[in-house]
Design a protein that fits this description.
With about 325 residues, the chain is of the alpha/beta class. The chain contains 13 helices and 13 strands. Strand 4, helix 4 and strand 5 form a beta-alpha-beta unit. Helix 1 runs parallel beside helix 13 and helix 5 crosses helix 8. The radius of gyration is 23 Å and the shape is elongated. The two termini are about 15 Å apart. Nicotinamide-adenine-dinucleotide binds next to helix 8.
Length: about 325
């Protein structure tokens, strides 16, 4: 008899994705086991596909101990937690869902930009304490914010997320300067929900990094980890920026030199920073977390309920595509 194809979702899978897989005849086990127990389970139940999020480390020992595994599927962006070489050596295919989180990250970029523009990171701290007694003083203190419309947004890295950010920025009426050494040109689409037949398309060309640094009011990073963990923005780049400009990093810790950033924030040269990612996760630099000019989130850029649903569906479809019943 034909064996039912079995899937272990060790960090869970969204119900919609699970449903698609089950309707297509796959048996899905949803469990949460430590890595040392996974291979025993996989071998006993003859699991063909292992689905993980970022929590489960799929290292060489685990991969080598699984006799039957055909696919390792990462529900999300990146495959840092999977030993790709070991998988390749055993002919195990590795899948992920690189595009499913772009909208979530792009929206968080705007959440940080709006926060910095009106200093919500501070008013949210002061209002619960002093809003009752010092309302008017706070009103005065927080009345010097800025608007995004008409401001220039430098997008460093013009791949999937960079282009999604550009689409949102178009809607906000911002000027856009992209920089990407590989993506020299890209057409950004803006879907307007009220006129679905009228998708607006605008072609952008990469400018030079110096142009981006010199002209932007906000700079947002959307690049992968650089070779050797090199920072892309450090003291030399900050000096080329407009005084008072803001920096947003939702890409990877280490892409912005954190000590240099602190120095430039303290001197008042950089207007503020929105940070979702940090050099030393999960114990970021306290001075940065507490800084009054910094808006912070705990690496949640790609993680929304909407993204989880999309990831589950996209992953289920990919599994069915590459490993049909
Ligand atoms: P992508 O591969 O589609 O785009 C990255 C772009 O960066 C590429 O076009 C590449 O040419 C460009 N690039 C590489 N080096 C560069 C450099 N030195 N200067 C300028 N451009 C450079 O990737 P993506 O899907 O847009 O993701 C971008 C980043 O976002 C990744 O680092 C990813 O890990 C991160 N990310 C974070 C979260 C989160 O939770 N905060 C979620 C998803 C993705």
């Amino acid at each position: 008899m034909h064996k039912m194809k079995a899937i272990l979702a060790n960090d869970g899978i969204d119900p919609e994705g699970k449903d698609i897989l089950e309707k297509n005849g796959y048996c899905v086990y949803e469990q949460k086991m430590p890595p040392e127990e996974i291979s025993t389970f996989i071998n006993e139940k003859q699991v063909d596909v292992l689905i993980v999020r970022s929590a489960t480390q799929v290292r060489r020992e685990l991969i080598e101990a699984c006799s039957n595994l055909k696919i390792i599927a990462r529900a999300g962006v990146g495959t840092d937690n999977i030993d790709l070489e070991a998988a390749k050596a055993k002919n195990i295919k590795v899948l992920n869902t690189p595009g499913a989180s772009s909208q979530s990250v792009a929206e968080l970029v705007f959440a940080h930009m709006f926060t910095l523009a009106r200093r919500l990171q501070l008013s949210n701290r002061f209002m619960p304490e002093k809003g009752h007694s010092d309302f008017n003083a706070l009103k005065k203190r927080f009345s010097d914010g800025i608007e995004l419309r008409g401001r220039t947004l430098g997008i460093l890295g013009f791949g999937r997320i960079g282009q999604t950010v550009a689409s949102l920025a178009l809607g906000m009426g911002m000027r856009i300067i992209p920089y990407d050494p590989i993506v020299k040109k890209a057409t950004v689409e803006l879907d307007i929900i009220h006129i679905p037949e009228n998708t607006i398309k605008i072609e952008f060309e990469s400018q030079s990094l110096d142009e981006l640094l010199g002209q932007s009011d906000f700079i947002t990073l959307h690049v992968p980890k650089q070779p050797g963990g090199r920072a892309i923005l450090g003291a030399a780049e900050f000096q080329k920026m407009k005084k008072g400009a803001y920096i947003i990093n939702t890409s990877r810790g280490g892409l912005v030199d954190e000590l240099a950033l602190l120095e430039f924030l303290n001197s008042g040269y950089i207007g503020g920073a929105g940070l979702d990612v940090f050099e030393n996760e999960p114990s970021p630099l306290p001075d940065l977390l507490k800084h009054p000019l910094v808006s912070v989130t705990p690496h949640i850029g790609g993680s929304t309920r909407d993204a989880q649903v999309r990831i589950g569906i996209e992953l289920a479809q990919r599994i069915i595509e590459v490993y049909p019943h």
